[in-house]
Amino acid sequence: DQQVKQNSPSLSVQEGRISILNCDYTNSMFDYFLWYKKYPAEGPTFLISISSIKDKNEDGRFTVFLNKSAKHLSLHIVPSQPGDSAVYFCAASARGSQGNLIFGKGTKLSVKP
Amino acid sequence: GAGVSQSPRYKVAKRGQDVALRCDPISGHVSLFWYQQALGQGPEFLTYFQNEAQLDKSGLPSDRFFAERPEGSVSTLKIQRTQQEDSAVYLCASSLRAGLRTGQYEQYFGPGTRLTVT
Q: Largest Cα–Cα distance in chain A?
């Protein structure tokens, strides 16, 4: 069973608008969450992260929100740019683990000019 | 500076052949992870090294999979008697730190090796 779920396989957004990517998780032992971005034929690149003791973390155009009671997190990109077009993976790390990440299946974001 | 490199980038193997995939982590990175990414899926954890010690191999799918990092730097993932279901992209990631908070330190991924078993 999937511990990290990204239920939208794809998302299309107009340039300049907000992109919202969603992620749900089931394991209450997760205490750190990360978003990775992946271009074709490249490895995932770290984007932004959040600890379970926070509910928001912001870095430039990227903001991650965490709702622990709902076991839900989201990544907001404002404003969206064509270069943001990529596959976005949500990942989580469990308390007490060696740091291995549990990934969702990814959401393919297309930002149209 | 140099990132994580992996070789070969692409490998085609006939069913039953053995393959070896190499990962060169970022110099000085203590932690090294291997992940397997099947088509349309997210990466799935295979194994973890802290320096030369393999501390977690719970994700290895069968005893045909073997990984080593003998000197605490370069790592090799070996798959014996490859099967079609082994076809995937194999990703290596390294991280500067280790310990119980390893997940809170950024993991740098290599470009992956795409393995196709025919």
A: 44
Q: How many CA atoms lie within 13 A of B65 on its CB side?
A: 17
Residue B99 pLDDT exceeds 70: no
Q: Check residue A42 and report its DSSP letter.
A: S
What residues in chain A have per-residue pLDDT under 70? none
Q: Which residues of B touch A (CB under 8 A)?
A: 4, 31, 33, 35, 40-45, 48, 50, 55-56, 59, 91, 93, 95, 98, 100-112
- For B40-47, what is the mean pLDDT? 95
Dihedral of CA atoms B35, A64, A48, B77 in degrees, nearest 10, equals 0
Q: How far apart are CA A39 and CA A21, in angstroms?
A: 16
Two tokens, residue B32: 């090294």
Contact A45 B31 (CB under 8 A): no
HEC string of chain B?
CCCCEEECCEEEECCCCCEEEEEECCCCCCEEEEEEECCCCCCEEEEEEECCEEEECCCCCCCCEEEECCCCCCEEEEECCCCHHHCEEEEEEEECCCCCCHHHCCCEECCCEEEEEC
- Considering only CB atoms, B43 lies closest to which of A51, A98, A103, namely A103
SS3 A25: strand
Checking if the pLDDT of B101 tops 70, the result is: no
CA-based nearest distance B118→chain A, Å: 21
Answer whether B109 sits within 8 Å of A103, measured CB to CB. no
